[in-house]
Amino acid sequence: MQKSRASARLFCFWKGSIVLADYPHKRLLLVVNPTAGRRNQRLLDLTLAHLKVLGWLVERYETRAAGDACAYVESYTGTARLVVAAGGDGTVNEVINGLAARSDRLTLAIIPLGTTNVVARELGLPSSAKELARLMDQNHCQPCYWPRVNGRLFAFSVGVGFDAAVVRGVNLAVKRRWGKLAYGLAALAPWLCWRSRDYQVQVDGQPYRADSILVSNGRFYAGSFVIAERMRLQRPEVQVLLIQAASPLALMRVLLALPLGRFERMTTVRSLTARHLSVQGAGDESLQVDGDCEGALPLTLSVPAEPMPVICAD
After folding, report:
1. Measured by CB atoms within 10 angstroms of the end CB, which terminus of the chain is less buried, N or C?
2. Residue 163, SS3?
3. Which residue segments constitute the domains of the chain, with CATH numbers given?
């Protein structure tokens, strides 16, 4: 049967195989965080322009508050089979959770507009609007695993200890104006008063202790720093990094290893792969989840068996 010019044939990897589906129209749902997009409005506008030239119809939704993107995507009843998160990593996190709560399976794409854009970097997404539009149009996607921490999915990182203390201290006004500099300023106070912690950790049932903990779902941390060389979003596991640093000096040595690409090689860092993780602490300290403060100890993490189709680079 002859297809109309507006029709789309979408290919997607699912559970290790290729799924072919025909849809009567090229239609996508665009979920935009207008605050995150201020510095990258041109990338968003150009990508949409290229998609429209390629025949895509765009349903646009702009978020208004935290949690808005998740709720809207979960309850969406339109016909779009591609959901595009246009914003930073926090927006991506919300869209992932909204998609996972649905009974059907929609494909995720990202237009990176945030401060660090770690997920986009993990997926190898280009900075060119034309190339982003091409990847979406040709539906280059792979199955990605989003681990679940305390009942909610995360995209790339969870932190306990120093990492969470830094994120908790970030001034949002400074972040909007100066970007990554806000994290450096927020790190000073917790670093100066850092002392030994005693987190009780279970990694796939094996007991450990640590002064600080990072959990990575991919290679990158805080933008371009590599902390888990072998980890990929396409693997059904996470990298658990247990940090032993009982003083500001010991912590500084670990932090300096980040830009040098030697984080996993530090003798004070133990790197383990896992599908299940639990962390107990002395109190109900907050967690860092995908660059934001969210939830609190105790922490329970697991990797779901079902992946999600996500647009990625060639």
Report:
1. N
2. helix
3. 8-145 (3.40.50.10330), 152-302 (2.60.200.40)
